[in-house]
């Protein structure tokens, strides 16, 4: 079968539009099969797909190379415990006040 | 039977996501100290509302919802950011094809390219590409329609590719975006 240039360009364009959603696993199973079949036949789209995967991989590596300060976890745990103690203090003061009011009343 | 919300159970559920939350905050705010401060506020808020968190649901997505709520609050306070409208960022659409990322590009180069993208686009790229959330989850985290998630992701990725191509060009590798 002879495929015209226009058809190839249109088909490529359609695949390019769907390539990001294919990469993100967000296409319907039917659409995913169509894109996968196209990638198996079309070298330029397959190359484009590989380059997009490469950008995503390099981005992940770069972002994950940035660690928080080793003290963040410690500081955070201390603040959470401080907040818990404060909340419990309020809770008990309220309870004692309620009991006191009940006794006096 | 209702669950007993202890600090230990909160920490066991929420602390494994601390590094992810911090990295996203750092990339959105572009400032380590402020990211540190915001992350602590996120966890305190999460702990205060932990009794409303449904066990078995996605804890990471819940923390991210609180993160973006806090980030929006802080960036208004600190930066007086204009919230970018979809139409304000002029995009050349002539970079349909992705140039290869040269090995010589460092993590710092890639982060600089990402940081140069407007925050609304950067947020979606981070949530999908780095944190691997589904579009539906991103829509829920950012409280925006799923169509907006998809358009911001597409534009954000195009901007990132263009900036990476320009960095590569400055190293004498390949052609700058927009050159034909």
Spatial shape of chain B:
elongated
Runs of chain A in which pLDDT lies below 50 for 5 or more consecutive residues are: 1-9
Helix content bin of chain A: over 70%
Give the fraction of residues assigned to helices of chain B. 55-70%
Inertia-based shape of chain A: elongated
Average pLDDT level of chain A: 81
What structural class do you assign from the helix and strand content of chain A? Answer: mainly alpha
Mean pLDDT of chain B: 84
Major β-sheet annotation of chain B? none
Q: Work out the largest interface and the residue count of each chain.
A: A-B, 34 and 45 residues
Distance between the termini of chain A: 96 Å
> Order of helices and strands of chain B, N to C?
HHHHHHHH
What is the number of strand segments of chain A? 0
Q: Kindly name the structural category of chain B.
A: mainly alpha
**End-to-end separation of chain B:** 66 Å
**What's the gyration radius of chain A in Å?**
30 Å
Quote the beta fraction of chain B. under 5%
Strand runs of chain B, count: 0
How many strands, what sense, and barrel or not for the largest sheet of chain A?
A: none
Could you tell me the strand content of chain A as a percent range?
under 5%
User: Assembly state here?
Assistant: heterodimer
Task: Please outline what is shown here.
The complex is a heterodimer of chains A (105) and B (180). By secondary structure, chain A is mostly helical.
């Amino acid at each position: 079968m002879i495929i015209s240039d226009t058809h190839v360009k249109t088909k490529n364009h359609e695949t390019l539009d769907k390539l990001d959603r294919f990469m993100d696993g967000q296409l319907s199973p039917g659409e995913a099969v169509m894109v996968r079949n196209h990638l198996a036949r079309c070298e330029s789209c397959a190359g484009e797909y590989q380059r997009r995967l490469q950008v995503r991989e390099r981005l992940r590596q770069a972002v994950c190379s940035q660690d928080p300060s080793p003290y963040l976890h410690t500081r955070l745990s201390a603040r959470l415990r401080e907040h818990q103690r404060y909340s419990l203090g309020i809770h008990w003061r309220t309870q004692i006040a309620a009991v006191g009011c009940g006794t006096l009343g | 039977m209702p669950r007993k919300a202890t600090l230990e159970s909160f920490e066991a559920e929420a602390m494994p996501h601390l590094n992810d939350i911090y990295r996203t905050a750092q990339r959105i705010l572009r400032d380590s100290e402020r990211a540190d401060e915001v992350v602590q506020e996120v966890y305190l808020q999460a702990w205060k509302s932990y009794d409303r968190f449904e066990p078995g649901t996605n804890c990471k997505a819940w923390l991210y919802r609180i993160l973006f709520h806090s980030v929006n609050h802080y960036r208004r306070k600190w930066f007086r950011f204009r919230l970018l409208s979809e139409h304000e960022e002029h995009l050349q659409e002539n970079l349909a094809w992705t140039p290869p990322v040269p090995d010589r590009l460092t993590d710092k180069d890639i982060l600089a390219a990402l940081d140069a993208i407007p925050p609304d686009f950067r947020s979606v790229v981070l949530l999908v590409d780095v944190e691997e959330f589904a579009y539906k989850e991103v829509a829920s985290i950012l409280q925006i329609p799923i169509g907006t998630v998809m358009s911001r992701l597409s534009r954000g990725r195009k901007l990132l590719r263009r900036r990476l191509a320009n960095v590569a060009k400055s190293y004498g590798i390949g052609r700058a975006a927009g050159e034909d």
